[in-house]
Amino acid sequence: MNVRRLIPAAATAGAVTLGLVALSACSASDAADGKSGDKLAVTASFYPMQFLAQQIGGDHVSVTTLTKPGVEPHDLELKPRQAAQLGDADVIVYLKGVQPAVDEAIAQSGVPHIVDAASLTTLEKHGTEAGHAHEGEEHAADEQGVDEQGADEHGHGGEEGTANGGDPHIWLDPVKYAEVAKGVGASLAKADPDHAAAYRKNTDALVEKLGGLDTAFKQGLADTTTKTFITTHAAFGYLAERYGLEQEAIAGIDPEAEPTPARVKELETIARRDKVSTVFFETLASDKTAKTLAGDSGLKTDVLDPLEGITDRSKGADYIQVMESNLAALRKALGAK
Fold first, then answer.
1. CB-based contacts of 138: which residues, under 8 Å, 6+ apart?
2. In this structure, are 121 and 230 located in the same domain?
3. Residues 174 and 265 reside in one and the same domain
4. 143-167: average pLDDT
5. What's the CATH number where 147 sits?
6. Which regions of 142-263 does DSSP assign to beta strands (E)?
7. pLDDT tens digits, residue range 200-210?
8. How many domains, in total, are found in the chain?
9. Residue 251 has what pLDDT?
10. Which domain holds residue 325?
11. What does the alpha-carbon distance between residue 282 and residue 115 come to, in Å, rounded to a whole number?
């Protein structure tokens, strides 16, 4: 367990308490300003949740995010002002298990409408070789509890990932992301029934876009020279499983994990055997390990973006555009025909 990550979570508990006390002292007009007039105030934990809230909420919501562009989401430390912002929200949209500090603060926020994206789809167990099948995996509802924030039988805990080792990177699979979108749309409609029709319409439009993205990936990756790709950490397990690929990660689910010498040697063997041409790295983490492996193996490097945030280095202005760039990068690396 990563002790360093647990420290911000514990500190956040005190920050939340201070923030909520400060809010209670605000005037009615201050509270109204915080709600952005008549708009539904939605707080998103990081970019994939922010994108859903903005696309589905449209003009009827005011969306703020706890994770600013360029900040690695897993290491977010909440400031007292951000903790106060949580308590002032009408709706919180987050993904439990990705950001321990956020999970702790949300649990103490008192917000009536909390949407955990992980409860809206089925999570899988992905590890270093995340493209492989998951034999014997069980998700029995009668063996798991349901938490107060709406988490289903796949309840979460610990560092990045769920208590049962579930991979949280569901947004990188357009099909699973569409399932989450439907749940978020239903939650916004429940929180703001006066605009329920608009939320349903926007949800349908987004699900249609994600369906088109799914089709593009299916067609674009159907015929390739190799099905294996190497990336810095195992963020693309759902994507690999969806489109028949084999993800080989330098590290595991945790982006901060360092590979062992044995793993590096194994990847060099895999690269030769499976005709791998490229080692992928991401925009918000160091590319040092990827470039070292690529240099030692005579491979190229390129970006495969896990879409944890949009910055000026992102190859696209939003989720759809960056996913399209990811598809182009995969087609090139895998030798699509």
1. none
2. no
3. no
4. 42
5. 3.40.50.1980
6. 228-231, 246-249
7. 999 999 999 99
8. 2
9. 75
10. 216-334
11. 27
